[in-house]
């Protein structure tokens, strides 16, 4: 069949092939994306003030007598801000100029809410005041969609994020190692693929033909490229976030057309069990996040075509609660990471802890201001911002990306 032969030829041209014990032979990659954006969503609302600490403000210590990070547990960045000690691995990336923080980020007044579900849905949709059927990444990918997009162009690791809604060919992957054809010992992957394709090719339902063909393309490419086994697992560790970032790193390195990937990390809704600076849930969460980001960056460090953005639906209240935890707030923090990032800075307008809004850090930077610059300067979609973020006019870029 023509499409099967095309898929076979593409796979053989792209795949590292083991032949007769001669070792792995690397061929030119197909479907390479000009740039890859990885969006990490911290589900549950990260306590930004506890991660990026306003270390020179007495209000921080006064309002958090039980959970404030003491000076000995802080890693100074600017004199004004310091990192929680659990984020120590990120300090070198900041100093090298590959990591920047943006303070006071969040939803605009029309979208503002203390509901996790509502805030996440609105942030995923990229609209003001309401959720959307499409996600902002889905809208972007759909604008450039063609009839023969790479099957791994838009990927949600673990779950298909709402950010990718609207791009019909978005792919959800739990484990790359399981995304493959597993024929009996006396049948080759190509023979199994050909047989399966023949089963669906004769159907009168065009949608079934198209989707089955795309599914087979995905399985076949994953099989011949041996995805799931090409990245050093020990570097990323055994925890879930590290495992998922390892899969993104492998897709990037495979050069098979990945343009957008999403990764979720839950566990940030710490109303209690927050812990101390050197033990407990907050310390564990920040350590897992930081180690996963560093392992990813070290793996793809040589590439200038990958950018990571980290965000959460909102921040937490500055004052600790009676359970020695933090309640839902407003202003939060974002991070951007990559070799093309204008790092080594804490960007955005910091209002200070003396200017709280009903106990909350106010939102001084609409999260779309960061994402608009990301789309324009990293994905080349500056002319499509009205379509990606309808109704939003970017006030100015923060110059986060070169």
Q: How much of the residues is beta strand, in percent? A: 5-15%
CATH architectural category: 3-Layer(aba) Sandwich
Helix-strand pattern, N to C? HEEEHEHEEHEHHEEHHHHEHEEEEHH
Coarse shape: globular
H/I helix tally: 13
What is the average per-residue confidence, as pLDDT, rounded to a whole number? 88
Give the radius of gyration.
22 Å
* Helix percentage range: 25-40%
Give the total of domains: 1
In terms of structural class, how would the helical and strand content be classed? alpha/beta
What's the CATH class, please?
Alpha Beta
Major beta sheet summary: 9 strands, mixed
Low-confidence stretches: 4-32
DSSP E strands, number: 14
- At CATH level 3, the topology is Alkaline Phosphatase, subunit A
Give the distance, in angstroms, between the N- and C-terminal Cα atoms.
46 Å
């Amino acid at each position: 069949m023509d499409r099967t032969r095309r898929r076979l030829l593409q796979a053989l041209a792209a795949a590292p092939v083991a032949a007769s014990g001669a070792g792995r032979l690397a061929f030119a990659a197909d479907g390479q994306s000009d740039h890859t954006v990885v969006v990490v969503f911290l589900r549950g609302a990260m306590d930004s003030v506890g991660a990026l600490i306003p270390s020179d403000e007495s209000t921080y210590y006064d309002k958090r007598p039980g959970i404030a990070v003491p000076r000995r547990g802080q890693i100074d960045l600017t004199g004004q801000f310091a990192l929680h000690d659990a984020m120590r691995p990120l300090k070198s990336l900041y100093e090298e100029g590959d990591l920047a923080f943006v303070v006071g980020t969040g939803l605009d007044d029309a979208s503002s809410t203390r509901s996790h579900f509502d805030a996440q849905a609105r942030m995923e949709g990229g609209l003001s005041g309401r959720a959307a059927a499409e996600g902002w990444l889905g809208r972007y990918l759909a604008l450039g969609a063609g009839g023969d997009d790479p099957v791994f162009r838009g990927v949600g690791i673990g779950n298909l994020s709402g950010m990718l809604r609207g791009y019909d060919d978005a792919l959800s992957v739990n484990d790359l190692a399981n995304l493959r054809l597993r024929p009996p010992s006396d049948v080759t992957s190509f023979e199994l693929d050909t047989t399966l394709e023949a089963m669906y090719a004769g159907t009168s339902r065009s949608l079934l033909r198209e989707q089955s063909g795309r599914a087979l393309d995905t399985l076949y490419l994953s099989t011949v490229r041996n995805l799931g086994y090409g990245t050093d697992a020990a570097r990323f560790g055994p925890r879930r976030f590290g495992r998922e970032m390892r899969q993104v790193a492998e897709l990037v390195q495979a050069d098979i057309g990945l343009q957008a990937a999403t990764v979720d990390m839950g566990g940030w809704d710490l109303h209690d069990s927050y812990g101390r600076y050197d033990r407990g849930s907050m310390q564990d969460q920040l350590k897992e996040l930081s180690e996963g980001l560093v392992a990813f960056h070290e793996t793809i460090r040589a590439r200038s075509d990958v950018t990571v953005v980290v965000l959460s639906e909102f921040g937490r209240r500055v004052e600790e609660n009676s359970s020695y935890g933090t309640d839902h707030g407003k202003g939060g923090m974002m991070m951007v990471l990559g070799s093309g990032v204008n790092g080594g800075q804490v960007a955005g307008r910091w209002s200070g802890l003396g200017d709280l809004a009903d106990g909350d850090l106010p939102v001084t930077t609409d999260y779309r201001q960061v994402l608009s610059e990301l789309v324009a300067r990293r994905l080349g979609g500056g002319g499509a911002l009205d379509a990606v973020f309808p109704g939003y006019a970017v006030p100015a870029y923060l110059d986060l990306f070169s």
